[in-house]
Amino acid sequence: MYFPYLRGRQFELIALRELVQKGILSSKIIPIIEPVKLSSTLIKTIDVYGENDRTLAIITNPKVGTFSSDVKEEKNQKLKECLSASLKENNNILFMNLLRANSKPERFIEKHADNMGTICVDKDAVPVYEDFFAETDVKYNLIPDESGFRRKIRKNRVLLADKFNKQDRNNDYIDVDDEPFSEDHLYYLEDQYVGFADYSVVGEDYNETGFAPYAVAIHIVYFDKDDSLRVKHFVSDSNDDVSDTAGKFKEALSKLVEWNKKKNLDTFAIKEFEDLYRREAYPGLGTVKKLSIMHHLELIGKYLDKE
Q1: Which end of the chain is more exposed for a tag (fewer CB within 10 A), N or C?
Q2: Do 155 and 118 touch, CB atoms closer than 8 A?
Q3: Which residues pair with 182 in a beta bridge?
Q4: Phi and psi angles of residue 116, each rounded to the nearest 5 degrees, phi first
Q5: pLDDT tens-place string over residues 97-117
């Protein structure tokens, strides 16, 4: 099983939603959403997964973003009610607890005992797992591949790692335009995990706000000859200032299209990129990220479905 861990920003959510709506998300993939904002897009995504009888994991105690404060604001009462209704109506929600040192998850366990999972990336939080979850029916436990976690958390382990080598600036990807991404899909079972997880081509780091980039970069994963995953970065050329983002996108996209003449990747997202190239259209950077995520998840799904 593969568990892509994504923050609940608009285009990440749209990517997850469209994968299901288009019927191109493998049943061996369970996306994990850390909601960073209370939004109608989040609710719609949950609804789509419920309507299509697909499992979706939701972190109930997110660490980043404004979700926790959003649900307390009176102006968001209607959205909060809609979210509660969506979660109750969807029987395929896996509720995840992000373990923190000294936390007391009794209420979480009482409420979600039939369908819960944990995420433990802090060694100081391992005792919380031992005290509260070790003897309970936890569906999946996401942990780093480190001995301090493996020795204490042994049941239903999922390997969690940030595989995306995020650069400070898009322009920096020019120097590392093609690099290894992951081999976890090859060895997770051998290493005694029931699944593997990563942060797709976004990375673990979270920033509240975006900014106009000097360069546009498109990140595309692909399988090498040995079935390991690599990632290719397609970067624009005219990167002296923040002007003409659409022109920069065209430069990066043309490199992707030319490269794929030999690679012949045929996911929905790649076809969309090629259509944008033919139409000379610029969809916005959010859509570029959405398509890169969709490509990654569809590609992994096709691999898992062949196993």
Answers
A1: C
A2: no
A3: 229
A4: -135, 160
A5: 999 998 999 999 999 999 999
